[in-house]
Write a structure and sequence with these properties.
The complex is a heterotrimer of chains A (about 675), B (about 230) and C (about 250). Helix content of chain A is about 40%, strand content about 15%. In chain A, α4 packs across α5 and α16 runs antiparallel to α17. The radius of gyration of chain A is 25 Å and the shape is globular. Chain B is an all-alpha fold. Chain B starts with a helix and ends with a helix. By secondary structure, chain C is α+β, with helices and mostly antiparallel strands. The radius of gyration of chain C is 20 Å and the shape is elongated. The chains are: A alpha/beta (about 675), B mainly alpha (about 230), C alpha+beta (about 250). Chains in contact: A-C, B-C.
């Protein structure tokens, strides 16, 4: 396994023509052959559901797996803001090129040009497809589609469905999948968790899955396997991911020879509700759109901050001149609307300096008072009141803010019990998305032939930092418009392959290994809960591989994870039995995989001696404390192998930029 | 056949409940209008003539048979729905609350059964005796019709002079009121009539109807017992 | 910090086949915890004693995935309106309270274990017709069909359903009319959904009946308990659309 050839298989030709030419020249599978080919899709989020539905429509026999009770519960459902598309409906100069360029630049030049351009091209078709499916996008009074703008770009290209865009897009894909289930082309295996990939003659030919209700271990075969299993943000324990989001499918693929690319590229979202106590199980995102009107600040003096932490002072008690609007101060050009990675780091700096405002010291204010005043005055003026009282201004201003952000304010109040109209919101960054994932080529195929990865599960399009409203775009582009074509490059060579038997020695061996792994975890019968290990892992990850990293910490973190892993395998306690519905056992297997992935993330972050996007190394900063990229040495994708004798080994794919010039991102 | 598929579907069955219920609501209105003639101080002339016409006009006889069928259908389908719905719910909650729905709306089957029981008492007391004729009810000369008619007025006056009959009627009518308080508006919802503009009106009418109509009926025994 | 003392009366049932019963536990909680985090505390406590934790369904914990399903003191998703269990916080309770927690009850939602129930009937209802038949790639330009803002908004209100099943759980008849009608309304209110509308209505109602859900008696409990405030206007719409399709279509 030492010589892995990371060929991106990027087609030749002009950037803008590559995908079109490639589609026109790739191998096809005839309808009569499609009927005889089985495809396994794991995961039913935007990427998985859209891929399964489309492959079913094309005529393949698709088996779809989800650990949820229903495909509709996948965490794509929680995406709030919107989905980008280069439609240029607003006539503001948007184009495929601009979307491509913004995404490459936003990703800090660590993604593949050809993939990103294809994504920008497909973005337009996604909107058409979703509208036809009945996705109720926001509309103007004339009945046409509305757009809004998002961080880091200068055009309005984000399509949205209130604050529930992910939900509506997922329901669209889920319904398309339901339709194929009704025709019998897709068979849905709900409450099934994939526990291994089965390889025959080097090709992925099926999976081992556990029926979560009965605990039965099942062997499922197919001509190829598509993983669309989302990101691994839960390695940090606290994140905006759902409780069940996990890396296991992808990690099992790594253990079968696939490579994990750029695992240390993690997106920390700046506007989340802060941690309130040790019992906290997850973090809730407040949409990026709030930074359009909210001003971020901390008290200038440590004494004031201390008083607020103790509860003797409130945010409103701090006089205007005693506040540090640090984003406006540090980044006058973009102010509160700097990209996510920049805003998150600045919040960390403010809190590290001792100016944080929550009892934990880990929060900054997001204040709407000036917006309320500004809107209130304008509203009073438009109502013919040129000389309104302060009270009138407040009332009118609060109304305008409620119209714009009412549902978010309500959510904030539900969770914190504080009224954000009267007191400034408290926010803090939280783990949100993972740009890294399984290494895939232009066909979205991993280095294991016949094993594909889509959506957040792969690494392909966002480089070192993802722009807002681009995750939904990528998931659906991969599922609806890329994999249905590129899967043919593999399957066209398989038309003579008969149905894959699920009782071959390879399948029996994989099944046996899974059973042994289950027994191993069940039989430890130690004293500590799975949850407690997960929390400890999360703390290590956040401390040493979180918003900022340094070589020393990463080495320490790696060691701590190795020790924690040892402790896990000697002292974890999993209640219940393996042959029944046992959520603790499910969690134990997922945490076991996180305990390996976490180490690879540390190693990756240590290898990358530069700061770029979500990866901030304290040793590599400019004089004024900004991220310092090293294009000469690190313009590559780090693809990590976990070898058979448990070594972590680096493979590199050099990134070639032929169409854009690598520049320093500046928001000053 | 489509019509059977339709009427046996969950929505079809509810349609039967809705249409029969609305017919019975209409009937109650007519019934009350006739009965209020008992309050006339004419020795029963108007009421007895009205009762005669109601039992001898062929069209009204036809409608009255329809009425009996609808009552039975409403009751039978209602009881069927009750058992099916109970079966579909399965285990009940250990903690029950009326925070999300009115008591009446959740107990329509109970209320309906009590109304039916009341109806049997009512029918036994008046309708049955009138149908049996001779020996049960006396005849009296109708001035307006010019021939003898059954003196139902006298029978009613006699019944309502007994306290226990008055109490049974008042209780029966209160139960009917509760049944209507949900049934009236519910019938429209089942028919698919729910609109921002009209539903509040229907709901208001339903409330008013469920109070005024039983009250109108209740005045009669109270009037007979206390005033006459 | 954890200054609330609570008594929990929780339904425990090992499997669909076995009989269940209530168990009483006491737990210390903080008013800042979400209801599910309070249950996490209980489960850690049980695991510490090598007992089996209470099984309950949950995932996103931000009120959108629809996984959480439990009846708290007789109300699905607890006492607060427009709120899922995961968004419910302990400040809605008082120290010393006894809280009774039961699974969703309906024959269409059989209990799997403890508080987890099987809601796959909802998937089958959607599979019977809750979609618009458009293959990937067939779609015309997104702006080729203008949709009036108000109508689009109404369709959205119905589409906001998270498929949690609180409507069925709240209904004294275990009826799935609110869920089914929300999907019929979402698609039926949009021009894209018109082509298959009649067949969709008939097929979805037929599947709903087949799944063993009860019949709607307009109590309105579903609407009152729906965490997404979906209106029973949708049920009226389904009623009239069903009748219309039965009388006017060829089928």
């Amino acid at each position: 396994m030492s010589s892995i050839n990371l060929d991106s298989k990027t087609p030749q030709g002009e950037l803008a023509e590559k995908w079109t030419q490639y589609k026109g020249s790739m191998n096809l599978v005839a309808p009569n052959n499609k009927r005889r080919i089985d495809v396994i899709v794991v995961g039913t989020g935007l990427a998985g559901a859209s891929a399964a539905a489309t492959l079913g429509e094309l005529g393949y026999n698709v088996k779809v797996f989800t650990f949820h009770d229903s495909p509709r519960r996948a965490h794509s459902i929680a995406a709030q803001g919107g989905i980008n598309a280069a439609k240029n409906y607003q006539n503001d100069g948007d184009s495929v090129w601009r979307l491509f360029y913004d995404t490459i630049k936003g990703g800090d030049y660590r993604s593949r040009e050809a993939n990103v351009h294809r994504l920008a091209e497909a973005s337009r078709d996604i909107i058409d497809q979703c509208v036809a499916q009945g996705v109720p996008f926001a509309r103007e009074y004339g009945g046409l589609l509305a757009n809004r703008s998002f961080g880091g770009v200068q055009v309005s290209r984000t399509f949205y469905a209130r604050g529930q865009t992910g939900q509506q897009l997922l329901i669209g894909a889920y319904q398309a999948l339901a339709r194929q289930a009704n025709t019998g082309k897709c068979t849905i295996y709900n409450r099934h968790e994939m526990l291994d990939v089965v390889k025959i003659d080097g090709k992925a030919r099926g999976i081992i899955a556990r029926n979560l209700l009965t605990g039965e271990i099942e062997r499922h075969s197919a001509h190829c396997v598509v993983l669309a299993t989302g990101g691994y943000g839960n390695v940090f324990y606290l994140s905006t991911n759902a409780m069940g989001s996990n890396v296991s499918a992808g990690w099992r693929a790594v253990r079968k020879g696939a490579l994990m690319a750029n695992p240390c590229f993690t997106q920390i979202h700046p506007t989340c509700i802060p941690v309130s106590g040790d019992y906290q199980s997850k973090l809730t995102l407040m949409s990026e759109s709030l930074r359009n009107d909210g001003r971020v600040w901390v008290p200038k003096s440590k004494e004031d901050a201390e008083a607020i932490r103790k509860g003797t002072k409130k945010g409103n008690d701090i006089a205007e001149e005693d506040r540090d609007y640090y984003l406006e101060r540090r980044y006058p050009a973009f102010g509160n609307l700097v990209p996510r990675d920049v805003a998150s780091r600045a919040a960390k700096v403010a809190c590290d300096e001792g100016n944080g405002v929550a009892p934990t010291g880990l929060a900054v204010f997001l204040d709407f008072a000036s917006a309320i005043e500004r809107y209130g005055k304008a509203e009073a003026f438009s109502q013919g009141n040129a000389n309104p009282s302060a009270g009138q201004i407040r009332t009118l201003g609060e109304k305008v803010v409620e119209q714009k952000y009412g549902n978010l304010f309500e959510m904030y109040e539900k969770i914190t019990g504080e009224n954000p109209y009267k007191n400034p919101m408290k926010i803090y960054p939280a783990v949100h998305y993972t740009m890294g994932g399984l290494w895939v080529d232009y066909n979205l195929e991993t280095n294991v032939p016949g094993l594909f990865a889509l959506g957040e599960a792969n690494f392909s399009d966002h480089g070192a930092n993802r722009l807002g409203a681009s995750a939904l775009m990528q998931g659906l582009a991969d599922g609806y418009f890329v994999i249905p074509y590129t899967i043919g490059q593999f399957l066209s060579k398989e038309i003579r392959t008969p149905q894959i038997a699920n009782d071959s020695p390879e399948f029996m061996k994989a099944e046996q290994e899974v059973k042994e792994r289950l027994d191993k975890v069940m039989n430890i019968k130690g004293n500590q809960s799975v949850e407690s290990f997960h929390r400890r892992l999360g703390k290590i990850m956040w401390e040493y591989c979180g918003m900022s990293r340094n070589a020393e910490g990463l080495k320490k973190g790696q060691k701590m994870i190795q020790e924690l892993r040892k402790e896990f395998y000697s002292d974890v306690f999993v209640p219940g039995n393996k042959d029944e519905f046992n959520p603790e056992l499910e969690k134990a297997l997922r945490v076991a995989d996180f305990l390996e992935l976490g180490e690879v993330m540390m190693v990756d972050a240590l290898d990358r001696n530069e700061s770029c996007g979500g990866h901030f190394r304290e040793e590599y900063v400019t004089e004024d404390g900004e991220a310092k990229r090293n294009d000469a040495d690190y313009t590559y994708v780090s693809a990590w192998e976990w070898t058979d004798n448990d070594e972590i080994k680096l493979h590199k794919e050099e990134l070639k930029f032929e169409n854009v010039e690598l520049k320093t991102r500046s928001y000053k | 056949m489509w019509i059977i598929k339709f009427l046996t579907s969950s929505i079809g069955r509810k349609l039967i409940m809705s249409l029969t219920g609305l017919f019975l609501i209409l009937f109650l209105t007519v019934h009350l209008a006739g009965n209020l003639q008992l309050l006339k101080n004419d020795g029963g002339e108007a009421f007895n003539s009205y009762a005669y016409i109601m039992t001898h006009n062929p069209l009204i006889i036809l409608i009255s048979y329809g009425n009996y069928i609808f009552i039975l259908l409403h009751a039978a389908v209602g009881i069927l729905l009750y058992f099916q719905n109970k079966g579909a719910k399965g285990t009940k909650y250990a903690v029950s609350t009326n925070k999300s729905a009115t008591w009446a709306s959740k107990n329509m089957a109970l209320l309906g059964t009590l109304v039916l029981a009341f109806l049997f008492i009512h029918m036994g007391d008046f309708w049955f005796k009138m149908k049996m004729g001779e020996g049960w009810i006396n005849e009296v000369q109708s001035a307006s019709l010019g021939h003898p008619v059954k003196d139902l007025y006298e029978k009613v006056s006699y019944s309502f002079s007994q306290l226990w009959v008055v109490i049974v009627y008042i209780v029966g009518l209160v139960i009917l009121g509760f049944h209507l308080s949900h049934g009236f508006a519910s019938a429209f919802q089942s028919l698919g009539i729910n609109h921002k503009k009209y539903t509040p009106i229907i709901a208001g009418l339903g409330k008013a109807y469920s109070i005024l109509v039983p009250l109108g009926f209740a005045i009669i025994p109270l009037y007979v017992y206390f005033i006459k | 910090m954890n200054d609330m003392k609570l008594q929990l009366k929780i339904w425990r049932q090992r499997s669909a086949e076995e009989k269940g019963h209530f168990e009483t536990y006491s737990v210390q909680a903080s008013e800042h915890m979400s209801f599910l985090e309070m249950l996490d505390v209980l489960n850690e406590q049980l695991i510490g004693k090598k007992e089996e934790p209470v099984v309950f369904e949950h995932d996103c914990r931000e009120g959108i995935c629809g996984a959480c399903s439990m009846v708290i003191n007789g109300q699905p998703h607890g006492p607060n309106g427009g709120t899922t269990t995961c968004q419910l916080h302990m400040r809605s309770f008082k120290s010393g309270d006894t809280i009774t927690i039961e699974p969703f009850r309906a024959v269409g939602f059989p209990v799997i274990k403890d508080l987890a129930v099987d809601r796959s009937a909802f998937d089958r209802i959607i599979q019977s017709g809750g979609y618009i038949s458009v293959n990937t790639g067939q779609a015309p330009d997104g702006n080729s069909i203008p949709i009036e803002k108000g109508e689009a908004s109404k369709a959205f209100d119905a589409a906001a359903c998270i498929g949690c099943g609180a409507c069925v759980a709240a209904c004294p008849n275990g009826s799935a009319m609110l869920f089914t009608s929300a999907k019929v309304s979402h698609l039926g209110l949009l021009p894209q959904g018109q082509v298959e509308h009649e067949a969709r209505v008939q097929n979805m109602v037929a599947q709903m009946d087949k799944e063993g859900f009860g019949m709607c008696s307009n109590t309105g409990a579903c609407e009152a308990e729906c965490p997404k405030d979906i209106s029973i206007e949708n049920i009226a719409r389904l009623n009239r659309n069903y009748m219309a399709s039965m009388f006017s279509s060829d089928k």
